[in-house]
Design goal:
Two copies of one chain form a homodimer. Chain A has about 600 residues and is of the alpha+beta class. Chain A has three domains: about 150 residues, Acyl-CoA dehydrogenase/oxidase, N-terminal domain (Butyryl-Coa Dehydrogenase, subunit A, domain 1); about 120 residues, Butyryl-CoA Dehydrogenase, subunit A, domain 2, CATH 2.40.110.20; about 150 residues, no CATH class. Helices cover about 55% and strands about 10% of the residues of chain A. In chain A, the strands form three sheets. In chain A, strands 4-5-12-7-6 form a five-stranded mixed beta barrel. In chain A, strands 1-2 form a two-stranded antiparallel ribbon. A two-stranded antiparallel sheet of chain A has the order 8-9. In chain A, a hairpin with a 5-residue loop joins strand 8 and strand 9. In chain A, helix 2 packs parallel to helix 5 and helix 8 packs antiparallel against helix 9. The first copy, chain A, is globular. Chains A and B meet through helix 9, helix 10, helix 11, helix 12 and helix 15 of A and helix 9, helix 10, helix 11, helix 12 and helix 15 of B.
């Protein structure tokens, strides 16, 4: 069983987002729906053949710290080699760099198969792709020459090194320091924490991108610079040189996501780790955010893929497991029914469907914006896409990591006791997904980012949603949803307008605003799907008719069961409630 | 650190529930607040000294199947011996049976310490106590003579054997059969699944209470009888005889709650397992529900204790961990603050406080009703308590297993990345607590129980809540809460009245009714706490003043952030929404 529905993926890509239209642009003119389909087929096949089979094994045999090295099961390397050989690291990169020059939205859709099959193994690829993207954008010619081709081929893997033991969410407190050398390079010293893929032997080299403070730099985030610090130094001719001064100090042992090794690294225990500056001095955070934003979309999509895999398992279980009888069946000798026949089981499945398919549409919509930002003809279109992406990124990261985890919770519940055992896959998916609300900026940090920095981008988002409302108003059966989305949208804009009147309370309740905005955005993307489905239903029959009816029913579920939650969140934000602000430590 | 606040426990027991008043009743006349306190002190001490230290160890070294036996770490047996020797199995039993004859509410409060410290080890005790209670109520004189004293001393442990591989929630499909023997005993044969404590060497014997069908019995639940089937036969003189025909077929490997061994048992692979009938033939389910109801209150309290332990850890972490600065602090050189200083962290702590302290009040209120049911002077009072307990049991089981799990989720989030690692305790608490929505009847089954069987008990519950509303209306600062509870209460009664008009939709949406009723009940118990706190504040100072202010603030949180959710649930139930009912399998 694939961990996501190809029919649904095709629906979002081709019917909702119309990604085949991108082939009309010069960057993608070598592509067609046929090449996109071939990429998705390959992704589905490698995910099923190379990633899925060791997902549980990697969970049960997590990476081990052995004499300063990391030992892990061999299947991880084998799977990643197949992944790299098929070109997935370089999927969206320029053909000139050896890439497939695919639209980002198609490349991301392909990645979803790997994430759903085995997020622990896919984690190494996610970081390497983001690392390569950052270097492509900000690296010097020399850095690009020495590292980029090897990252794209999978000969080198990448990391991002931000957190330190005393500085998790608070990057202002980063202490790692960089001492300028006579030749223009730097020697770094400091302790880095939570480094995914920080040490392993999956690739010949590891390219660390490290936030540090050049000696004498200002305090706070404005004194941070970004450095490229390789595990093995790379000679000018591209061969590997000496081992750099980076020591593995320990591993973190996680509840889930165990396949991705998570390290404590000590830079510069001896003479200092040799690194080179990426971008301008003291501008490291801006560069890192290039990678962070991509990683955040990747985290959101990962959360969706894990939720989606759980939904598929739960649906499969509910269609085969027999248990109990309908309320009207009084005769205990009548045969038990498949549990999908129970309305409460259908509630749990429908909620999962609404969360994971809504989440998939959200993440792919965001990925499509990256393509717009890069390739739209008009500058106005490109800047519109950029603005949309900015305001949506915290939602893309946080919404799936909350609601697709809720889907995983429901997938366990559908399985009953079996779902709680390690003999079934859903408990691991739940443990794996719990990470996503934490890493790459906790959801609390996403909320502050949205309210504190991104809220100005709201009007451009509002325009998109209003356009959808107008379309839906003219479609029979969707009029009520159009009204409900319009009302919900007013809640978001009303909340945003209330913000300056009560800054302290608004920042204190930023999480509620994120909840509110997230649910309204996903409702919008459900209505977009419903519009397509309603039109397609006019001529659909058989399985296709059932597919589109399912879309409409999931949309109905989201509008009836989920969207009304925004009324309460709206009130808390605009009143505004000060219960948490007023609470004192001594009262706990 | 204790896994629950003794100050809060004393508040609920003595200030809200006034359990010391029970000492005026003849059954408890040997007791006083001093003896209750001594019991709670002992429980806290043994929990901290014997249960907590091996909680993580037992999680990391779960019971193993070895040549038909169960092997586990020795600390489990040692802890349970200390537990039994201190009299906790027999805590609420008659002095004549060697019990402490404590009120059930005090005995349950004592158990909460063990559950919070190590729910896996406490699980064996929970089952043994419930088993002994069932035998005391329905066992024959012979059964009581041969088994009860040994259960109460901890020489024997107990189980409940209901589920079978093909029959989890659907007890009507139980296939295990019982063949009557010439001497009045039975020989049983069948497969039992999910048997907690089904095999171990923690006690000399294991007393299985088994649901089975006497040859020729009717189909369905009305053909089920209950049998006592010991692991070792017991001779008339009390010595142990031959091993019974019960084979350990395998263990289930759970996500959490790993310390409690969970077994697949085959009864009667050879000549048939020897058992004796408990109660009347074909009346087994009624007997078993005596044990089930007690187990359900125990499950609810377990969920509270796990949530509570997580809250205490999160609070401790938030008070010591420094990170970031308040929004107004612009200077990055200013020192970072303790994270409890961030409003969003206080939100997460306040939500946990509202859930776990609300849950504790709920469970202890229910336990107090057991005492009322047994010892109230007037028959009317006893039957009122019985009716309240009936309608509350599904809520006591389901509400904490949902919302105190939500508390565990927030406890992880407060810890950030650390909370996701196995080096910190909160991830285990989260995994452990996830079981509680499943076992002893899934929350879906609790919802059907509430809507299908218990809804008639609602008026007696309504009277209690209205009494609270009247009290609160006269207390300065609580008037608004009184109005809000009154309105919320009308939502519950309105929903209940709408039920007969749309039976199918109501049964399909039973889960929403359970959510609605649960939140209103907990809001009521928060208002009861607030009434006591508001009065006490008139003369409190220092730590005591802070404690009561915390109670009022948590009540305010529940009424502002949680109770309004009932508006949405109410609409879904009364409209009623048929989205899930209408959904078809083919549309997924």
């Amino acid at each position: 069983m694939d961990c996501l529905s190809r029919r649904d993926l095709d629906f979002v890509l081709y019917e909702v987002l119309e990604v085949d239209r991108l082939c009309g642009r010069s960057r993608y003119r070598e592509h067609s729906r046929a090449t996109f389909d071939a990429v998705l087929d390959t992704a589905a096949r490698i995910a099923a053949e190379q990633f899925a089979p060791h997902n549980r094994l990697a969970d049960q045999n997590e990476p081990r710290f052995e004499a300063g090295r990391v030992a892990m099961i061999p299947q991880v390397k084998q799977a990643l080699q197949a992944f790299c050989q098929a070109g997935f690291i370089a999927a969206s990169f320029d053909a000139g760099l050896g890439g497939l020059q695919l639209p980002v939205v198609v490349a991301q859709a392909a990645l979803a198969f790997f994430k759903g099959a085995n997020i622990g193994t896919e984690g190494y690829a996610l970081l390497t792709i983001a690392n390569a993207n950052l270097l492509a954008a900000f690296g010097s010619e020399e850095q690009k020459r020495l590292y980029l081709p090897h990252l794209l081929s999978g000969r080198f893997f990448g990391t991002m090194c931000l957190s330190e033991p005393q500085a998790g969410s608070s990057l202002a407190d980063i202490l790692t320091r960089a001492l300028p050398q006579a030749d223009g390079s730097y020697r770094l010293a400091g302790h880095k924490m939570w480094i995914s893929g920080g040490e392993h032997e999956l690739a010949e080299n590891i390219v660390h991108l490290v936030l540090a403070r050049i000696q004498g730099a200002p305090a706070g985030v404005k004194g941070l610079s970004l450095f490229l610090v390789p595990k093995f130094l790379v000679n000018a001719d591209g061969t590997l040189g000496a081992r750099n001064d980076i020591a593995l100090a320990g591993l973190n042992h996680k509840m889930g996501y165990r396949g991705t090794v998570n390290c404590v690294l000590n830079f510069g225990e001896k003479e200092g780790a040799l690194g080179t500056l990426v971008g301008e001095p003291h501008n490291g955070l801006a560069c890192m955010f290039h990678m962070m934003n991509e990683a955040r979309v990747g985290v959101g999509l990962g959360a969706v893929a894990l939720g989606y895999a759980g939904y598929r398992h739960a649906l499969d279980y509910a269609r085969t497991r027999t248990q109990g009888r309908p309320p009207a069946a009084k005769d205990p000798r009548s045969p038990p029914v498949r549990i999908v026949g129970h309305a409460d089981v259908r509630r749990m499945l429908l909620a999962q469907k609404a969360y994971v398919e809504g989440g998939l549409a959200l993440c792919l919509y965001a990925a499509r914006l990256v393509d717009e930002e890069r390739t739209a003809k008009e500058a106005r279109e490109r800047s519109r896409a950029h603005a949309l992406l900015e305001v949506l990124t915290p939602i893309v990261k946080a919404w799936p990591s909350e609601w697709c985890l809720a889907a995983n919770d429901l997938a366990i519940q559908v399985h009953g006791g079996y779902g709680y055992t390690r003999e079934y896959p859903v408990e691991q998916l739940y443990r794996d997904n719990r990470l996503n609300a934490i890493h790459e900026g906790t959801n609390g940090i996403q909320a502050l980012d949205l309210v504190g920095r991104k809220i100005d981008g709201l009007p451009v988002l509002t325009v998109e949603m209003e356009r959808c409302v107008e379309k839906a108003r003219r479609i029979s059966g969707l009029e009520l949803f159009a009204e409900q989305l319009s009302e919900a949208l007013q809640r978001v804009t009303g909340a945003a307008e209330s913000f300056p009147r009560a800054v302290d309370a608004a920042l204190a309740n930023a999480h509620v605003f994120l909840e509110l905005a997230g649910h309204v955005v996903v409702a919008w993307l459900w209505l977009e799907q419903a519009i397509v489905a309603a039109r397609a239903l006019e001529s659909a029959a058989g399985d296709e008719e059932a597919f589109y009816r399912g879309k409409l029913q999931a949309c109905r579920f989201f509008f009836r069961w989920e969207l009304p939650k925004t009324e309460h969140w709206h009130r808390l934000f605009v009143d505004p409630d000060t219960t948490c602000l007023d609470m004192r430590d001594a009262w706990f």
